[in-house]
Amino acid sequence: MFGFSWKRLGIVAGLSLSLVAAGCGQDDTEETTDNADNNGDNQTENTANIGEAIEYTITGIEPGAGITQATDDALAEYENLAGWEQENSSTAAMLTELGDAIDNEEPIVIAGWSPHYKFAKWDLKYLEDPKEVYGGVEELTTLARKGLQEDMPEAYTILDRFKWEPEDMESVMLAAQDMDFEQAAQQWVDENQETVAEWTDGVESVDGQAIELVLTPWDTERASTNVVKLVLEEKGYDVTMTPVDPSVTFQAVATGDGDATVAAWLPQTHGAFYEEHEGDFDDLGANLVGAKIGLVVPSYMEIDSIEDLEPAE
């Protein structure tokens, strides 16, 4: 990225202005007024410098993700984002760029979502979205293929009961930074036996019946799907996890090629895919409430809203 700290430059510039004003012998009233004007000018200059420093680019993730489409919509909806672009690559690449920027206290704007371990690892904030392009609070929803309740009533019951909190998911994701996701999920299951017992109460065991769970290849879904996989395996199921693009997740459950997913982000992120296949699957309701998507920046950046960003020159 860039070999300078825009925040430090702003601090140095502000200190220099204060020293000059003191040397000229201004009275308190003049100094207060001038400093207020300078602060306003500095804020405008800082927001302009943000766009210039990051080449008017939002760091995105995979092209097929719902948040990617939402960010494209934001670029079209917000007039002040004229000339900005979204750079799509992968979640891993986005996190690498975010970490590098934070290490150097440099500006960056990412397409972000929560739950995600990045919010526990770094001090981040969402930019306000006054036009509500990204929607409000999201829910992660469980979907099952038609006929699953009759074919696998025990699995259907567990899937229907599966509910947990954002903090639960983030704890698995954090643990998965030092171990694989299955180990992290097993650790959570071992430490939350009371919750697991609520999902499996009265459920009979089966003898190796095969079930396929489809998921989007995001850490959030790796966390939840691995937990459900382990719980189903405790009841004797032979579980396969198949990571696919978001659109294929819905298609697979709708056509019966996959048995279920706990990875549907609604109503905004995967809303278009849900509408395309609505009625072709069973909606078992939210398994996690409090998810969110939007533009995210490090908390040291002196902006609070998408509208604080300046258009490209």
Automatic annotation (TrEMBL):
Region (Disordered): 26-46
Domain of life of the source: Bacteria
Signal sequence segment: 1-21
Keywords for this protein: Signal
Domain ABC-type glycine betaine transport system substrate-binding: 50-191, 211-310
Keyword Signal included in the entry's annotation: yes
Bias kind Low complexity: ranges: 35-44
Keyword Membrane among UniProt keywords: no
Stated name of the protein: Glycine betaine ABC transporter substrate-binding protein
UniProt source species: Virgibacillus xinjiangensis
